[in-house]
Amino acid sequence: MAEATQTVRIRAAAPGEGDALAELHARSRAVYYAAGGHEVAAVPDERYRETWREMVADARLAVLVAVLGDDVVGLITVDANGVLPSNAPDETRVRLVGIFVEPGRWSGGVGSALMDRFVSITRQADAVGEVDVWERNTRAIRFYERHGWTRDGTSRPGPAGADYVGFVLAAGL
To answer: What dihedral angle (degrees, nearest 10) is formed by the CA atoms of 143, 139, 109, 148?
Structure first.
């Protein structure tokens, strides 16, 4: 008998989930950095775990998780009350701090479900979305481009001599 398709549910991260989110984040980033030739730990240390505990508790961040059945399989972090000033007149921005999916769940709709929630947040704020992506993370770049994001010409230094490049998602998309 075929396995029933589960629906991805998105909810706020709960107090006490910081350690599990640190572990998911570490696994996800270890895979994409390795694909770009940069090694990072796949297991978080105590400081890394504490950072995630603080992020979950930080009222300036929205930390949302993607759940399949009883399993947290992805997460998204949105900055500071959602709305940030922009250099363009009459424009506000919502900053996508990060979107991470359990590597074994890549290409299964989890990232798209998280992105749909982010798009909903930007629409409610009538804002432009913004994110930085490590330039060697070609998988993520393709993901953002498929979801309507475009490069905005900005960059900042990143690891292994590769920059983080800026992307924006136009309001109303």
So the answer is: 0
Separation between Cα atoms, residue 145 and residue 12, nearest integer Å: 26
Q: Report strand pairing: 92-101 vs 128-134.
A: parallel
Span 6-55, pLDDT tens digits: 799 999 999 999 999 999 999 999 998 888 888 988 899 999 999 999 99
Q: Where are the alpha helices (DSSP H) in 109-157?
A: 110-124, 138-146
Specify which residues 96 forms β-bridges with.
78
Q: Which two tokens stand for residue 74?
A: 């992805």
Q: Pairing state of beta strands 71-78 and 62-68?
A: antiparallel
Q: What is the pTM of this model?
A: 0.87
Contacts of 11 (CB under 8 A, 6+ apart): 64, 65, 67
- pLDDT at position 126: 86
Helix count (H) and strand count (E) of the chain? 4, 8
